[in-house]
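From the pipeline queue, job 12 of 40. The input is one protein chain; the requested action is below.

Action: predict structure.
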Amino acid sequence: MSANTVSDEAAANTVIGTFSSIDPDQNDNFTYSLVSGIDDTDNNAFTIDGNTLKINNSPDFQTKPTYKIRVRTTDNGSLNFEKELTINVNDEIPSRLTNPNDDIFNITGQDDKATLEIQLTGHNSPVVNELGLFTVDDLQGTINGIAPGAEGYAQAAILRSEVILSAIANTPNGFDTNNLTRLLQLDSGQNFRFLLVQDGTLDAVRNDPNSIGKLLFSNVSTQKITDLDDNSFSLGWKDASGKSSTDFNDLVVKINQTDQALPLGTNLQGQFQGELIDLRDVQQSVQAEFNVYREASYNNYVGFYQVTDQNGGIDTNGDGNADVLTGQAGYTQAAVRGKIAGIDLSVSNQGSATYNGVFQPGAIFAPFIIVNATPDALLDDNSSNDPAVYFPFLGANSDHTDHISLLASNTFGFEDLSGGGDKDFNDLIIKVNLTTAMAGLA
């Protein structure tokens, strides 16, 4: 018997396995049948079709975890042999997203991980809001024994938070907000809540504890949860801008469990300063298509450079170790000098453009923005006119301010003004589509 297990989610007439027989006469053919005898208890639950065993009805682990059958194999000469077989039913945990208590959600998957899909479906706020997710220990939302609303809860939540996406208020021409989606991988069985960063980003709050007041936690006055009856929910938020006084439409997302794989390059996205492309697990060159949009008066330039790890160190001598760290003298020059050739991104105001480039496998790549200039202005012999350059790493920025926001998977919004300016993160928007060539295909 090739297999002796079946999922408790299997449909009627599902094939359990195939029979095979060993006989000294290698040219013999065999027929198989269910027969009476010892351990024939559940013969009626199965059908033999040729050499395959099928279950007649969908099994249920809770009511019957095992079946007993007796099978006879007969060769061309009418010689036969009988054997008792046990068919085991696997207790499959269904993949699902539930809302068991207030604003607490729980997600389960078939394996030890489960994937959550979040899609932006609406935004009606004059400011840029960033949606975050944080894990909690129980259905009361506690974190290490700290209850929601108690002293220290916000700080504990930040340490467990992951960025989902930012919803910008003023979109450039051509940038479609209807297809902004993020996939997050969580432990199966994990409980979690959501929070909103009003007019800011989680990176900025983590970097400046005094800005913790920008956090908006979900409750009946800030978030409306709608069960969509298809293993998904709609979350509508009301921020403090005052534009949405009665409706919860300042930021609206749809969330659901999914079996989709995480998009290529997104492993670090959502973590602190995680606006990166992570190709460490890739073994082939990666083709990149860049869609570029702009809503800014400055003629900005975006490029990418390789970093040694998620902290942003740069290897300048090729030994694989970080020689220049974020915040050290020469970091900006090392990053721009090491930019990936052929990836030079810019576009006219309210225009859109598409570029193509190649990332090498096995590395992490970070974006940078040069304000109203190109790399030549930074790498010439005149340092007195060097333009401002900003990175995902706040310690590498001269103003220690967040200038790059995650708008969706592999989609980055840039702010070009010192100190964060208007914090609109739409001065340039870069959407990256990554693909690898399949081995063995021409």
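Job complete. Confidence is low (pLDDT under 50) at residues 438-442.
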